[in-house]
Amino acid sequence: TDIGAAVIGSECSLTVDVSNAGHGALSVSVKTAGQEVKHSIRDLSRGQYQVLYYPQLATTHKVDIKYNGLSVPDSPVVLNAKNPATGKEPTATGLGLYQARVE
Asked: Which end of the chain, N or C, is less surrounded by CB atoms within 10 Å?
């Protein structure tokens, strides 16, 4: 499995390789806080699949991957979705801004 970064509000992906497992069916479940997360599976051919998911919460996400009803190695995958705004300083720009008070 090749896993990309998980960022809330963005399309995130991971790649699953079952090319050595023979013919079968891939099933994926993505959950956080006990709820299913919107996701889709794209067949890349030759036993390669891309799982696309859309995290909305900056929390742990569990991706359960099965092939022919059996969990693949390293499944479930646990991912921590990050909020891209966390830790950044707020800024404002524009012609009408001369001074601001921050409390």
From this structure: C
- Identify whether the C-beta of residue 39 lies closer than 8 Å to the C-beta of residue 52: yes
Q: Which residues lie below 8 Å from residue 71, measured CB to CB, with a gap of 6+?
A: 64, 65
CB contact at 8 A, 35 and 61 = no
With bands split at pLDDT 50, 70 and 90, how would you rate the model's confidence at 50?
very high
Structure tokens at 50: 């891309």
Asked if 57 and 8 touch (Cβ cutoff 8 Å), the reply is: yes
Report helix, strand or coil for 22.
Answer: coil
Distance CA 49, CA 6 (A): 18
